[in-house]
Amino acid sequence: MTDRYAVFGHPIHHSKSPFIHSAFAQQTGQDLTYTAIDAPAETFTTAVRTFFAEGGKGANVTVPHKEAALALADDATPRAQEAGAANTLLFTADGAIYADNTDGVGLIRDLTNRWGLSLEGKRILLLGAGGAAKGILAPLIAARPRAITVANRTAARAEALTTAFAPLAVRFDVTLTTLPWAQLVHREATPPFDLVLNATSASLAGSTPPLSRALWAPDAVAYDLMYGATPTPFLMAAQQQGAARLIDGLGMLVEQAAESFWLWRGVRPETEPVFQALRTQLAASTA
Ligand code: NDP
């Protein structure tokens, strides 16, 4: 029998997840369907429960429901609990809903496997302290960089994030600090970073985080969790300021999906062909 999966979000019509999971299914010979379901906040929990009651096997969850997804689950992986949010739900044989968060591992696999970057001993600047930042911080710490500095427009959220992850940072011997948002543009206040990760949604508002040339170490990598057909505003600003390498979040998207697929099906798909197909699709959308 064909198994049913879906992604829940609001809005959801731009989601690439149905394409990605259909490609994974075809590649691995898995018999499944994967659809996008638009669910505003008021109906999200009911929509997920109905989907599972009607035979759905698993689901992805995207903005703005990742925290609500964790809340509705009966049990969750440690990494979802650490993140305080879930992007993957699994309906177990005994009728329980199990939550996971694959965003962090998706980012790390993209950085290390696809782009060949090692994070060990590196100085990382993390811009943003929302759901995505929360989801990637634990795996970033576990990759043993020398230091992670968190800067967020709303300082209190950056402070809360570093306080919550302080014990983990101590365990992995990582210096975890915050930097006031306004100081990002002050040359003398900023040490250079090897990797600057943009986990804000500033681009959606047509803006970029404030940046200065002094932020970037000579071989610095700029990584934007957002992706698009053309370089994001953050990546364009990073290039102008001297970042040596620019990477967007398309690979992370494919890798987090592969981890969900593995959780549901016990099969690990090859991500590179799907990544390349999406890149081509995006490029064609602007032609
Ligand atoms: P949230 O809404 O949880 O957090 C948004 C973050 O962006 C907050 O830190 C917020 O700061 C900041 N922000 C929003 N607007 C601005 C602005 N105009 N200037 C500066 N900072 C701003 O979103 P998520 O954390 O879930 O997502 C963040 C980004 O990551 C999104 O673009 C999303 O698409 C992307 N993402 C990509 C994934 C992938 O697989 N490639 C996976 C997950 C997310 P404040 O606290 O001050 O409001």
Please provide a written account of the structure.
There is one protein chain. This protein is of the alpha/beta class and 287 residues long. It has two domains: 3-101 and 251-286, Leucine Dehydrogenase, chain A, domain 1 (Rossmann fold), CATH 3.40.50.10860; 104-248, Rossmann fold (3-Layer(aba) Sandwich), CATH 3.40.50.720. 40% of the residues lie in helices and 21% in strands. Strands 2-1-3-5-6-4 form a six-stranded mixed beta sheet, with helices on both faces. It is globular. The model has no long low-confidence stretch (mean pLDDT 95). NADPH dihydro-nicotinamide-adenine-dinucleotide phosphate is lined by residues 63, 103, 106, 128-133, 152-154, 157, 199-202, 205, 207, 209, 225-227, 249, 252-253, 256. The site of NADPH dihydro-nicotinamide-adenine-dinucleotide phosphate has 27 residues, from helix 5, helix 6 and helix 9.
Integer average pLDDT: 95
Number of strands: 12
CATH topology description of the largest domain: Rossmann fold
* Domain module tally: 2
Biggest sheet strand line-up: 2-1-3-5-6-4
Largest sheet: 6 strands, mixed
pLDDT < 50 runs, ≥5 residues = none
Q: Provide the succession of SSEs.
A: EHEHEHEHEEHEHEHEEEHEHH
What's the N-to-C terminus distance?
Answer: 40 Å
CATH architecture of the largest domain: 3-Layer(aba) Sandwich
| Number of helical regions | 10
- Helix fraction, binned, reads 40-55%
Rg result = 19 Å
- How does the overall form come out from the CA principal axes? globular
Strand content: 15-25%
From the structure provided, what is the oligomeric state, counting identical versus distinct chains? single chain
CATH classification, class level of the largest domain:
Alpha Beta
Q: Name every ligand kind in the structure.
A: NADPH dihydro-nicotinamide-adenine-dinucleotide phosphate
InterPro entries: Aminoacid_DH-like_N_sf (IPR046346), NAD(P)-bd_dom_sf (IPR036291), SDH_C (IPR041121), Shikimate_DH (IPR011342), Shikimate_DH-bd_N (IPR013708), Shikimate_DH_fam (IPR022893), Shikm_DH/Glu-tRNA_Rdtase (IPR006151)
Keywords: Amino-acid biosynthesis, Aromatic amino acid biosynthesis, NADP, Oxidoreductase
Pfam families: SDH_C (PF18317), Shikimate_DH (PF01488), Shikimate_dh_N (PF08501)
Organism: Hydrogenophilus thermoluteolus
